[in-house]
């Protein structure tokens, strides 16, 4: 975002980087630079978004904040609570677009699953978000706002954030990368890079950019099929970025960062759950040392889509996983969290049940 000291304009506060805050405070508002630290402290440490409540700032500076920087916080439409402790939030944005994000409660930590787009343009066969269609990219501030509001409602810091909500993060890479910079900066949210994961359906240029990004974050790749013919049917993005190009980009990421890549594999009855496909996956990913999340298919709300896809029986899940074990592929079966409130993998659609 360009900070212009020659004219009065209004800035989206949550989309500002720390450097932009410093420039705005010093060059535009003619205030000491430590004021930028104070403002960021109120927003990112204390989760205070009302400028009137920032009591260690002068009235003059608070007035500038009010009239020249808008804290565009999403509006909560609904909070749904699962029997397993998962919380799902439906937010409405400034233009009326709606998105969902999820708070996952684990035994020793919490994880925020946040959205990067309103809807998704990729139309994966098993995903409610893609079937519901694409509206627009989110701004960096709208991405950050989800995380801060979940922390505010939880009443404590959230340990991890995953870009696994609505949308394809690497199709909105400029705003996603900026939001990561905001969450990571020590004067802002100060969340470590190893606590941030970006999940992609396989946008090859974005994976390469992520590998070169200044904040070393973790990568998760939604694979779901180990050959192009099947993956083309499940994930249209594969027609643009083939598995060969995807694996090459993954190797580049691994070489650049040294980080282990997680593979997401939604197991669908009679579609991609044949144990033979585990052998194809092993050959495809040979030498990458990946970790595989096996995700038994989560049913989609029929009002969003009627795919006819089903979760495999336990025996088929076990057979596929036995093949992975025999191939020395590390994996875990990810048992769904929040399925009863349509908050599990592939179920987010940005709709309210009120």
Protein topology:
Layout: E1 11-12, H1 18-28, H2 34-45, H3 59-68, E2 69-70, E3 75-81, E4 87-92, E5 98-105, E6 110-113, E7 117-119, H4 128-132, E8 134-137, H5 140-154, E9 160-163, H6 173-184, E10 196-200, H7 204-212, E11 218-222, H8 228-234, H9 243-257, E12 262-267, H10 275-284, E13 291-296, H11 314-326, E14 331-333
Parallel strand pairs: 1-2, 6-9, 9-10, 10-11, 11-12, 12-13, 13-14
Antiparallel strand pairs: 3-4, 4-5, 5-6, 7-8
What does this structure look like?
- The chain has 354 residues and is of the alpha/beta class.
- It folds into two domains: 11-70, DNA polymerase, domain 1, CATH 1.10.150.530; 75-341, Aldolase class I (TIM Barrel), CATH 3.20.20.70.
- Helix content is 34%, strand content 18%.
- The mean pLDDT is 92.
Percentage of β-strand residues = 15-25%
Q: Describe the biggest sheet?
A: 10 strands, mixed
Shape: elongated
Under the CATH scheme, which architecture of the largest domain would be assigned?
Alpha-Beta Barrel
Low-confidence stretches: none
Mean pLDDT across the residues is 92
Structural class: alpha/beta
CATH homologous superfamily of the largest domain, by name? Aldolase class I
Q: What radius of gyration results from the CA coordinates?
A: 21 Å
The end-to-end distance, rounded to whole angstroms, is 37 Å
Oligomer: single chain
**Helical fraction:** 25-40%
N to C succession of SSEs: EHHHEEEEEEHEHEHEHEHHEHEHE
